[in-house]
């Protein structure tokens, strides 16, 4: 059983994970390009510091080229019997390609969807894992140290083969899009009815216990409104990190209707438009076919 791992990437998530693992009795050797947070100066030094009979390296860097670069370097370092864990929000198709490349050297590959954000250090991380049962079992002490307290099945799942962990996390994040959008629309409707609703924050807070819409996301909404009741300190520009798009793509490929998740994703696109060419076209058409009033551009 693994009790000492290497951890690549010591940003907000990685650094907190290192702390939680150490608190849970797992020895961690961390590597990050920033000298002020790293334990070792290079990936090669990280690998050399690990137990040589089975080296386990968890990669926790942003998806895309940063992850690809680290994994390419690790393929030159790790050897038969070692295990690499990819813990970023990568696309599951890439996991299957990478796993095949590592398998040529006899290196195991696990993909892990990690949920918990900046609160994970205190509350634990929800973990969704893809890969072989033998590799998962070998690394289980690490997963147990990271997951929330309580029954394992309420914070950890071996979802299936390689790619299943990131696929499950992709769907998780798609659901997250829909939930956040629903709470946001409810907030806007409450705020718009100012002639009747005197306490928007209090109304949302009252949903925190005993209601069917209570959740941790709702608790965070309550906290945000307590800090900034009209959200005046924020712009209405909302980014998306890719998982929502992948979720909608999967729905199209599998003919699974995803109206809520799709609408939530498109709402984020709309938030980033200073003007809407589509709505201008609608206004122009209404004017053309019906002579309807339009608002002239400034």
From TrEMBL:
GO terms for biological process: D-gluconate metabolic process; pentose-phosphate shunt. Pfam families: 6PGD (PF00393), NAD_binding_2 (PF03446). The keyword Oxidoreductase applies. SMART domains: 6PGD (SM01350). Residues 165-293 form the 6-phosphogluconate dehydrogenase C-terminal domain. InterPro entries: 6-PGluconate_DH-like_C_sf, 6DGDH_YqeC, 6PGD_dom2, 6PGDH_C, 6PGDH_NADP-bd, NAD(P)-bd_dom_sf, Pgluconate_DH. It comes from the Bacteria. The keyword Membrane does not apply. GO terms for molecular function: NADP binding; phosphogluconate dehydrogenase (decarboxylating) activity. Keywords: Gluconate utilization, Oxidoreductase. SUPFAM superfamilies: 6-phosphogluconate dehydrogenase C-terminal domain-like, NAD(P)-binding Rossmann-fold domains. PANTHER family: 6-PHOSPHOGLUCONATE DEHYDROGENASE (PTHR11811). Belongs to the 6-phosphogluconate dehydrogenase family. This is 6-phosphogluconate dehydrogenase Gnd. It comes from Promicromonospora citrea.
């Amino acid at each position: 059983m693994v009790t000492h791992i290497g951890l690549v990437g010591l940003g907000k998530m990685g650094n907190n994970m290192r702390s939680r693992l150490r608190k849970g009795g797992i020895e961690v050797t961390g590597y990050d390009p920033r000298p002020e947070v790293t334990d070792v100066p290079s990936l090669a030094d990280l690998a050399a510091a690990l137990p040589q009979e089975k080296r386990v390296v968890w990669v926790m860097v942003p998806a895309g080229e940063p992850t690809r670069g680290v994994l390419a370097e690790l393929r030159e370092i790790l050897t038969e019997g070692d295990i690499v864990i990819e813990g970023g929000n990568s696309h599951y198709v890439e996991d299957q390609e990478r796993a095949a490349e590592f398998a040529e050297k006899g290196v195991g590959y696990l993909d892990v969807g990690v949920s918990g954000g900046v609160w994970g250090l205190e509350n634990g991380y929800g973990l969704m894992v893809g890969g072989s049962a033998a590799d998962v079992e070998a690394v289980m002490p690490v997963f147990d140290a990271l997951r929330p307290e309580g029954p394992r099945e309420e914070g950890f799942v071996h979802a299936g083969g390689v790619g299943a962990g990131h696929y499950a996390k992709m769907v998780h994040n798609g659901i997250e899009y829909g939930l956040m959008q629903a709470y946001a629309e409810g907030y806007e409707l409450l705020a718009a009815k100012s002639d009747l609703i005197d306490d928007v924050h209090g109304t949302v807070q009252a949903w925190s216990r005993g209601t069917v819409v209570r959740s941790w996301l709702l608790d965070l909404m309550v906290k945000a409104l307590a800090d900034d009741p009209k959200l005046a300190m924020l712009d209405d520009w909302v980014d998306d990190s890719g998982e929502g798009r992948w979720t909608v793509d999967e729905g199209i490929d599998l003919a699974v209707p995803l109206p809520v998740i799709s609408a939530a994703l498109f709402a984020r696109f709309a938030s980033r438009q200073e003007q809407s060419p589509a709505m201008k076209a609608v206004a122009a058409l209404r004017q053309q076919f019906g002579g309807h009033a339009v608002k002239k551009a400034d």
